[in-house]
């Protein structure tokens, strides 16, 4: 079968032929219908040999996966051949305290996430380790909705965790209206009565942010601080969501957050906000978001079924997957790049 793999440290992904897998006991074989390309993949491929701690190469990419159940191993129940599903990505041990709550991204033994710590779904077929990691899609289009598994789930957890501070009349700032950020804007409009301010680079990105629900937009640089302070009566934002995660956006978050507000960092990078008595306004809290729970993924699917969120996608065939990653690397993708093996 065809698969897109990261094979050599410092290289770009390669389309290769590998053996089609066979499900063992408790496993499920999916015929992949869609797989999302993510900036986290670029983070993995950008790691040096010393910093690379993911699955030993070669690694089949793809942690956002939708598919149809093709075959099941011994002991698998409650899964039907031909069922359309999406894959919950943060695979945990299933037995520790966090996994018992469905928070497998915080597994005490560590995640085995596909496309990161095990082979993923950027291929014609994929093995899923356990039926609990499958969520039915129903009538939802798998290509349009495959990225609910990360680009939907991660911002949902970010927004949901901040809801106590997003009461009517408050202000939320979203930094970065890309693959995850454009979903966060929609979630904020669906779940709160807060004013949503978006920061990004360039007029096209800001126009896109407005189309998906932003109330105000500004170029993402320090010049945005003063007008946002004016919009908020000098108080600042009750919650700042940083979907970029580099130091300049972390610095913006610290400059924009209000007293007793929250900074929520989602972007995978090395930026940080130092929280102390003299570094940010008093009573500010900070959080770094790590994916989301299985229950939350089910909630995200329900929001998609009700039309509350829609992920903007650009489609590519598996043969075009390397081109998709080049466009992603060059920040030429608006929303999410989705690989469709049968296209």
The residue fraction in helices comes out at 10-25%
- As for the number of domains, it is 2
Task: List the uncertain runs.
Answer: none
What is the assigned CATH homologous superfamily of the largest domain?
A: Medium-chain alcohol dehydrogenases, catalytic domain
State the order of secondary-structure elements, H for helix, E for strand: EEEHEEEHEEHHEHEHEHEHEEHEHE
CATH architecture of the largest domain: Alpha-Beta Complex
Characterize the main sheet: 7 strands, mixed
CATH fold-level label of the largest domain = Quinone Oxidoreductase, Chain A, domain 1
The end-to-end span amounts to 15 Å
Strand residues, percent: 15-25%
Please state the average pLDDT score. 96
Structure class: alpha/beta
The top level CATH class name of the largest domain: Alpha Beta
Supply database-style keywords.
Rossmann fold, 10 helices, 2 domains, 343 residues, Quinone Oxidoreductase, Chain A, domain 1, 16 strands, 6-stranded parallel beta sheet, alpha/beta
Secondary structure layout:
Elements: E1 2-6, E2 14-17, E3 28-37, H1 39-45, E4 59-60, E5 64-72, E6 84-87, H2 97-100, E7 125-128, E8 134-136, H3 142-145, H4 153-162, E9 171-175, H5 181-191, E10 195-200, H6 203-211, E11 216-219, H7 225-231, E12 237-242, H8 247-256, E13 257-265, E14 285-288, H9 294-305, E15 313-317, H10 321-329, E16 336-340
Parallel strand pairs: 9-10, 9-12, 10-11, 12-13, 13-14, 15-16
Antiparallel strand pairs: 1-2, 1-4, 3-5, 3-7, 3-16, 5-6, 6-8
